[in-house]
Design goal:
2 strands; about 160 residues; Recoverin, domain 1; mainly alpha; EF-hand-dom_pair; two-stranded antiparallel ribbon; about 70% helix; EF_hand_dom; EF-hand domain-containing protein
């Protein structure tokens, strides 16, 4: 895959993180995203899982910013994912695990379609993509943490289509 194509995907994905649509990401966006996902899956606002997700999302932001505490725009986001790929990947894996824990309402360590769909709706994933994605990742009807983590990593690093 060409770098330009991957960076274009990353710029598009930046828009899913920029909830306030102000063209930049900062620590406040991590809190907003964690709250939106928590409410979307039916968790109580401010619950432990939400706080852990917010902390994990801040780690992603810190990796993208290379320790600088300044907002980043979409171009800087895409550039940083390339430049600091290893650090960003580690942070994204932790965020994927925290997201999985937030969505796993029954605590069984696997997501069923209902849990996965609630998470996807909260993330703004189009309806038609939800069932297709779930069936590809969870042919037995339950999505394992490692498959979720792998898919999340490929998505946020721009390696999927």
């Amino acid at each position: 895959m060409r770098i330009e194509e991957r960076r274009a995907r990353l710029v598009t994905r930046f828009g899913r993180l920029d909830l306030e649509k102000h063209g930049r990401l900062d620590h406040a966006d991590a809190a907003s995203a964690a709250r939106r996902l928590s409410e979307g899956v039916g968790r109580t606002a401010g619950c432990r899982e939400e706080r852990l997700l917010e902390a994990a999302l801040r780690q992603v932001w810190d990796a993208v910013c290379d320790g600088r505490f300044e907002p980043v725009d979409s171009a800087r986001f895409a550039w940083s994912v390339d430049r600091y790929g290893r650090a960003v990947a580690v942070a994204v894996q932790a965020a994927a695990d925290a997201t999985f824990d937030l969505a796993d309402l029954d605590g069984h360590g696997r997501l069923n379609l209902r849990e996965y769909a609630a998470l996807c709706f909260a993330c703004g994933v189009p309806d038609f993509e939800i069932i297709d994605g779930f069936e590809r990742m969870a042919p037995d009807g339950l999505l394992a943490r490692d498959r979720f983590r792998e898919a999340t990593l490929r998505y946020w690093l721009g390696y999927d289509s």
